[in-house]
Amino acid sequence: MSTKINIAQIIRDHLDTLRTYQGRRLIVQDVLFFYGIPVVLALGLVWMGLSITSFLSTILITSLSIFAALLFNLLLLAYDIVQRPDKGRQKLKRRFLKEAYANISYCILISLISVLVLLAFEILSPLLEKTGQAIFSACFEKAIFFIVYFLVIHFFLSLLMVLKRIHVMMSREFEHS
């Protein structure tokens, strides 16, 4: 993979925010919350037979695209705050901003992947139906539904983490300005 589009560092940086402050081990509760809950909920939604219609797919693509654009702006805000001089809390502030930056970048990545999966579903689903491979088509749809549900729930939970971090960061900025 080209180093220009290698996303491994974004994922590593995000996972590092789920580690203890000493950075040695992952916090199991956080991993279960941010990854386990989306897996369980996505499996439940697929098991209940909740399908993704073309209308829902369009809404999700639009919403996730808008969120990605807004999150890019949030990255700029975090960068701007890092650039402000602040002698007393610089080390803690930089660490907190680095984690927020990693989480925001990861949310953008998840939204982009979700949009790509939804677009692939919109393009490939009608083609599979035309082939007459009903069993394969049904399995493909269930797999895509699971992936989309997982990604959207995971995105939402990660977005809540970003919201909390930005709220804390901005609250501290207001207190010290």
Verbal overview:
The chain has 177 residues and is an all-alpha fold. The protein has one domain (8-175). Helix content is 81%, strand content 0%. The protein is built from 5 helices and no strands. It has helices at residues 8-16, 28-47, 54-83, 90-131, 134-175. α4 (90-131) packs antiparallel against α5. The longest helix is centred in the middle third of the chain and has 42 residues, at 90-131. The radius of gyration is 19 Å and the shape is elongated. The relative contact order is 0.15. The mean pLDDT is 88.
Helices and strands in order, then pairings?
Blueprint: H1 8-16, H2 28-47, H3 54-83, H4 90-131, H5 134-175
Helix pairs in contact: 1-4, 2-5, 3-4, 4-5
Order of helices and strands: HHHHH
What structural class do you assign from the helix and strand content? mainly alpha
Shape: elongated
What is the tally of helical segments? 5
Number of domains: 1
- Proportion of beta-strand residues: under 5%
**How would a textbook summarize the main sheet?**
none
Helix fraction bin: over 70%
Strand segment count: 0
Our Rg estimate from Cα atoms comes to 19 Å
Low-confidence stretches: none
Compute the average pLDDT: 88
